[in-house]
Design a protein that fits this description.
The protein is of the alpha+beta class and 598 residues long. It is 38% helix and 27% strand. It has two domains: 58-327, Beta-galactosidase, Chain A, domain 5, CATH 2.70.98.90; 338-560, no CATH class. Strands 6, 7, 8, 9, 10, 11, 12, 13, 14, 15, 16, 17, 18 and 19 form a 14-stranded antiparallel β-sheet that branches. It has a five-stranded antiparallel β-sheet with strand order 1-2-3-4-5, with no helix packed on it. Strands 20-21 form a two-stranded antiparallel sheet. Helix 6 packs across helix 13 (535-559) and helix 8 (388-397) packs antiparallel against helix 9. The radius of gyration is 35 Å and the shape is elongated. The termini are far apart. Residues 64-342 form the Membrane insertase YidC N-terminal domain. Interacts with the Sec translocase complex via SecD. Specifically interacts with transmembrane segments of nascent integral membrane proteins during membrane integration. Belongs to the OXA1/ALB3/YidC family. Type 1 subfamily. One of its GO terms (biological process) is protein insertion into membrane.
C-alpha cells in the first residue's frame, strides 16, 4: 500500500526518518535497560521478539492484553500485528479438532495506515513511520490499560501518537485514537485512512466457512442524525463487490463464528469498501476500506475495534445492533431462531450435559410442543384410510365425470367431518421450523468445537470415510449421522404410508404420477443435500424421525382405534341420512296438510 510516486523531498524525508529512528532506537533501548523500575518495565520483555525489516531497522513488538484478548503492536507503522483470542482455538487439520491458538490477526494480515496530505505534494504514510512506546499505564479505578505509540514528523517538528486502550477482564473491543501535535501543515487538506484485512480461515470446512464470510454494515439515518436503524446491510459473500457507504455507523468483517468490527466515534460521511472473494489459500476474503477524514484541530480521531466471537450475549452488551450480524436467517426464520430455539437451547445448556445430549433433549422438547399437530395429522390419516373403500367406489362410479367425482368426494369429507387441507396447513406450519434449523446450528458458537460420540465438531460435518473422488451435491466424505437420518426418514415414510394409496387417483388413469415415489425420494435428496451441513443438524433430524416413529406406534396403539373411527364415521353418516330423511318427511307432511287446488 506504499506510494510508488515519491518525489525527491519524500526520499530525503525517508532517509532522515531512517537515521533518526536508528539513533532513537539505540538510545531508547539503552534507556529501557537502565530504568527497570519505571513505567516502561512491562515493555522490556517484549523487546526480545523482533523481525528485521531491513538492515537498519528492527521491528519491535509490544503486548497489550486482558483476560480474553492478547494484542501485539508493531513499532513499524504502529499497527496491530497479531490478535489472539485466548478462550478459543482454531481447527488443526493434523489433529482433526480445534487445537491451535486462534489468531484473528496474524503476521500483519490486518493493515491500516494514514496518509497526511498538503498543497505542496508532500505526504506522510504512517506505515513507513517508526513508532516507539512512550506510555504504558493502567487506570486503578477502571482497570483500562493504555499504550501510547509515538512517531516523529519526518519533515520537521511535531509528532503522531497512536493510543491503544483495552479494558480488563472480558472486553473484546479496544480503543484506537490518533493524536497529532504540530501536524497542522499536513492536516489542511485532511487525511485518508486505508485499511486492508485478509481474513484467515479458522474452521474445518474452508468453503463452508467462506460462505458465511462477508462485509456487514449499519448506517445512520437522516443524513447523520442521531436517529439510526439497527438494520444490517451486506456485501456479497460469493463474489467480489465494492460499494460507497454513506453515514457509516459501523462496518463488520464477519466470519462464521468471529468478527472484526470497525466502529468510528464520529460519523464517516463516505467510506469505500471492497470485498474480494479468495477461492483458495489461507485467506477467505480480502477486504479493503478507504475513507477521507477532516480532523478538528486539537481533537483526537477515535475508533473502536471489536475482535471477538459472534456470541449473542456478548454483542448485545454493546447496544449498537452488532447482534444482527449473526446469520440466523431471514426475518421470520431469524425470529424463530432467536426467540424460540435459542431460548430452549440456552435453558437446556444450564444442565451442563454433553452438547449432543442437549440437542437430543431440545428435539424432544420441540416434538412435544408440536405433538397436537402431529396427533391431528395421524388422526386425519387414519380417517382417510377408513373411508378409502368409499372413495374408491366414488372413483369407479364417476370415473367418466371428474367434476361429479370431486364434488361427491368433498361431500363425503364433509359428512365425516374432516378437512383434507388441514393436513397441508399443519405441514406448512412446520416448514419454517424445519428450515430455520439450517441457519441455527451452523452459526451457534456454543456448539463450535464440541464433540459427541464419534463427532468431532457439532458445527461441521462428521466424516467416517474419506472418498477418493468428489460427488456433485454430496461431497468427498461419508457422514454417518446423515446416513442414519436418511435411514430413519425412509423407515418413517414406509410406516406412515404402509398400505396407503393415492385416494384421488383413478384406477384407470395412469397419467397422474405416484405421489408415494416422491415421498420415498425425499430422504435420498436430503442425504445429498445435508451431507456437508453441521452434524448437529443431522443429529436433530435423526432424533426427530426416531420420535416420529415412536409417536406413530404410540398413537396407533393407544390413542387411535381405527375400528372406533369407522363406527363413528358410520354413525355420522347415519345421523346425516336421518337428518335429511326427517326434512323430506316434514316437507311431505306439509304438502299433505295443505293440498293445492287444481
Amino acid at each position: 500500500m506504499k506510494d510508488k510516486n515519491l518525489d525527491y523531498s519524500s526520499i530525503i524525508g525517508l532517509v532522515l526518518i531512517l537515521s533518526v529512528l536508528m539513533i532513537f532506537t539505540y538510545f531508547n533501548k539503552n534507556h529501557t535497560n537502565t530504568n527497570k523500575h519505571n513505567k516502561f518495565k512491562k515493555l522490556d520483555l517484549n523487546y526480545q521478539e523482533f523481525s528485521i525489516t531491513d538492515q537498519r531497522k528492527k521491528n519491535h513488538f509490544f503486548l497489550l492484553e486482558n483476560d480474553v484478548l492478547k494484542l501485539k503492536i508493531s513499532s513499524l507503522g504502529g499497527g496491530i500485528h497479531d490478535v489472539l483470542l485466548k478462550k478459543y482455538k482454531a481447527y488443526d487439520p493434523l489433529l482433526s479438532y480445534h487445537a491451535k491458538n486462534l489468531y484473528l490477526i496474524k503476521n500483519s494480515n490486518f493493515l491500516y495506515k494514514l496518509s497526511f496530505l498538503n498543497q505542496k505534494g508532500l505526504n506522510i504514510d504512517t506505515n513507513t513511520l517508526y513508532f516507539q512506546p512512550i506510555l504504558l499505564e493502567k487506570n486503578k479505578i477502571s482497570g483500562i490499560r493504555t499504550l501510547t505509540m509515538r512517531a516523529k514528523n519526518p519533515y520537521g517538528k511535531g509528532f503522531l501518537d497512536y493510543i491503544y486502550t483495552i479494558g480488563e477482564k472480558n472486553q473484546y473491543d479496544i480503543g484506537f485514537s490518533i493524536r497529532t501535535k504540530n501536524f497542522s501543515f499536513f492536516q489542511k487538506k485532511g487525511l485518508i485512512l486505508n485499511l486492508e484485512h485478509k481474513i484467515l480461515s479458522l474452521e474445518k470446512d474452508r468453503d463452508w466457512e467462506n460462505s458465511y464470510t462477508q462485509v456487514c454494515y449499519s448506517v445512520y439515518s437522516n443524513n447523520g442524525n442521531s436517529n439510526y436503524s439497527d438494520s444490517v446491510k451486506y456485501l456479497s459473500e460469493k463474489k467480489t463487490e465494492d460499494k460507497n457507504i454513506y453515514g457509516v455507523k459501523w462496518i463488520a468483517h464477519k466470519q462464521q463464528f468471529f468478527s472484526f468490527i470497525f466502529i468510528p466515534e464520529k460519523i464517516l460521511k463516505n467510506v469505500f469498501v471492497q470485498s474480494e472473494n479468495l477461492s483458495s489459500g489461507f485467506f477467505l476474503k480480502k477486504i479493503q476500506l478507504k475513507t477521507f477524514i477532516n480532523p478538528v484541530k486539537n481533537e483526537d480521531i477515535s475508533f473502536r475495534f471489536y475482535f471477538g466471537p459472534l456470541d449473542l450475549k456478548v454483542l448485545k452488551k454493546y447496544q449498537n445492533g452488532f447482534e444482527n450480524i449473526i446469520p440466523f436467517g431471514w426475518v421470520f426464520l431469524k425470529w424463530i431462531n432467536k426467540y424460540f430455539f435459542l431460548i430452549v437451547f440456552q435453558f437446556l445448556e444450564k444442565t451442563n450435559l454433553n452438547y449432543g445430549v442437549i440437542i437430543i433433549l431440545m428435539t424432544i422438547v420441540v416434538k412435544l410442543i408440536l405433538y397436537p399437530i402431529t396427533y391431528k395429522q395421524y388422526k386425519l390419516s387414519a380417517i382417510m384410510k377408513s373411508i378409502r373403500p368409499e372413495i374408491e367406489k366414488l372413483n369407479h362410479k364417476y370415473r367418466k365425470d371428474v367434476f361429479k367425482k370431486q364434488r361427491a368426494i368433498m361431500e363425503l369429507y364433509h359428512n365425516v367431518g374432516i378437512n383434507p387441507m388441514s393436513g397441508c396447513i399443519s405441514t406448512l406450519f412446520q416448514i419454517p421450523i424445519f428450515y430455520s434449523l439450517f441457519k441455527f446450528f451452523p452459526t451457534l458458537i456454543n456448539l463450535r468445537g464440541k464433540s459427541f460420540l464419534w463427532v468431532e465438531d457439532l458445527t461441521s460435518y462428521d466424516s467416517i470415510f474419506k472418498l477418493p473422488f468428489f460427488i456433485p451435491f454430496y461431497g468427498n466424505h461419508v457422514s454417518l449421522l446423515t446416513l442414519l437420518y436418511s435411514l430413519a426418514s425412509l423407515v418413517y415414510t414406509k410406516l406412515s404410508n404402509n398400505g396407503r394409496k393415492n385416494v384421488s387417483k383413478n384406477g384407470d388413469d395412469s397419467s397422474i404420477p405416484d405421489m408415494n415415489f416422491l415421498l420415498y425420494l425425499m430422504p435420498i435428496v436430503m442425504l445429498l443435500f445435508i451431507n456437508s451441513y453441521a452434524s448437529a443438524l443431522s443429529l436433530y433430524y435423526f432424533t426427530s424421525n426416531i420420535i416420529n416413529i415412536v409417536f406413530f406406534f404410540f398413537i396407533k396403539e393407544f390413542m387411535l382405534d381405527e375400528k372406533k373411527i369407522l363406527i363413528k364415521i358410520q354413525e355420522k353418516k347415519e345421523i346425516k341420512r336421518n337428518y335429511w330423511n326427517n326434512i323430506i318427511k316434514k316437507i311431505k307432511n306439509k304438502r299433505d296438510e295443505n293440498p293445492t287446488s287444481e
